[in-house]
Design goal:
This protein is α/β, with parallel strands linked by helices. It has 13 helices and twelve strands. It binds adenosine-5'-triphosphate and magnesium ion.
């Protein structure tokens, strides 16, 4: 009888908690835009609804517990009365009367306790059910064999990918080949599926159709952790974690060696920038990368992508917060990675990213519109391409959107 309001209370309390956490994390947006009062109001409303549900559940629970207790006392008194009557009739000894009363008390105690504790049992059953649903939705993975370090050859055939749990693809019909030492610029308007492609290539979002092969093997054949090392991924929104810059670059590997961290930072062109921070590599970052500017965060994110000597770099808008020196450092980093036999994919809006790429993949509305040599694709598909081309080929020239 109390299950519904218990569950409602739990859900509302969790939502209020999530809201607190969300507004704490994004305090700049909340306070900066004057949303503090409405947010507090929403939180208070959720909290009081949760409290109300909780109270009605415990009220009912208390009433039921009291009722069962009263009923037990009534039964016990009844048994005592019946015993007394039988004793008076000479059919029972006084000892048996007391024994009967005690026996009844003992027999009923578990029932009473079960009523009081039933909510706990129910929570356990609900948790068990949720766990079974979760475990059956996520297929068990067997530990794949250790494959040798792949080459930087990436081949994608008729790929369709969707956000986890969705059936309608956000991206489809994408095919291309990426050879070692090559770079592809993935361009297209907002929501055309660039980030979706990056997430599919890193194995984060499921492949609905087609296949992605790294050095001949589908991504599923690689161990997830190993795959994370082979692919240097820079997400569009760079999230750094609470810890030092050094730990963030080393992806929190406790056995990280300084020379590897230095190599990654230098390859990403972030070494000088990190040295200029108050404590250099030991600068402590707060959750979300606080203490750093957007551009600094992006370049440290790039160093993290370069850590562990990945074979394929997947950079989602690596230049969105960079100034011209930052863009030049990025382009140098990409050129060096290509020279070292790595391959690179850059998702970007800005022409400056095209400088380092010989091929262009044009996405539109979640579909592949064109793939081919840079100059040809730009000339055929992009309006006003001469200016784009000029901006692209002037390395690090001032670039505007
Ligand atoms: N987490 C998500 N859950 C569900 N749908 C999503 C999610 N992220 C993106 N989408 C949808 O997928 C489509 C492609 O989005 P995607 O992020 O790949 O675009 P994009 O080309 O990277 O855009 P931008 O240039 O703005 O970064 C969009 O229609 C978007 O609404
Ligand atoms: Mg994107």
């Amino acid at each position: 009888m109390t299950r519904k309001s218990q569950m409602r209370a739990g859900k509302l309390a969790a939502r209020a908690e999530a809201r607190t956490e969300e507004s704490r994390k994004h305090v700049e947006t909340v306070v900066g835009l004057g949303m503090a009062a409405p947010f507090a109001g929403r939180w208070e409303q959720l909290r009081s609804e949760a409290l109300r549900a909780q109270m009605s559940a415990s009220d009912l629970n208390g009433r039921l517990t009291a009722a069962t207790k009263a009923f037990r006392l009534l039964l016990q008194s009844g048994v005592l009365a019946l015993g007394a009557w039988l004793v008076l009739q000479g059919q029972l000894t006084p000892g048996a009367m007391i024994a009967g009363s005690i026996l009844l008390g003992r027999a009923l105690a578990p029932v009473e306790q079960a009523v009081g504790q039933w909510a706990v049992v129910q929570r356990a059953m609900t948790a068990w059910k949720s766990l079974s649903v979760l475990l059956s939705a996520v297929p068990a993975t067997s530990a794949p064999m250790d494959l040798p370090r792949p080459s930087a050859r990436l081949s994608v055939r008729d790929l369709a990918a969707a956000p986890p749990g969705e059936r309608t693809p956000a991206l489809q019909g994408v095919s291309f080949e990426l050879a070692p030492g090559e770079a592809i610029a993935v361009i297209g308007p907002s929501a055309s599926g660039k980030s979706t492609l990056a997430r599919a290539l890193t194995g984060l979002w499921p492949v609905l159709r087609g296949e992605i092969r790294l050095s001949g093997a589908t991504l599923g054949q690689y161990d997830r952790e190993a795959l994370g090392r082979y692919l240097g991924y820079l997400p569009q929104e760079v999230v750094l974690f609470a810890g030092t810059v050094r730990e963030n670059i080393a992806r929190f590997d406790p056995e990280a060696r300084s020379e590897d961290i230095l190599r990654a930072a230098k390859a990403a062109g972030a070494h000088e920038l990190i040295l200029s921070l108050p404590d250099g590599y030991e600068t402590v970052l707060h959750e979300g990368g606080g203490r750093l500017s957007g551009g600094q965060r992006q370049r440290i994110g790039l160093a993290r992508a370069f850590y562990g000597d990945p074979v394929v770099l997947i950079l989602d808008e690596p230049n969105s917060s960079l100034d011209d020196p930052g863009i030049q450092a990025l382009n140098r980093a990409i050129a060096a990675a290509k020279a070292a036999g790595k391959s690179v994919l850059i998702m970007s809006h800005r022409p400056s990213a095209l400088a380092a790429c010989e091929n262009v993949l044009l996405l539109e509305g979640g579909r592949m519109r064109a793939f081919g040599p840079r100059d040809e694709v730009l000339r055929r598909f992009i309006k006003g391409s001469p200016s784009v081309l000029a901006a692209a080929t002037q390395r690090g020239a001032p670039s505007h959107g």
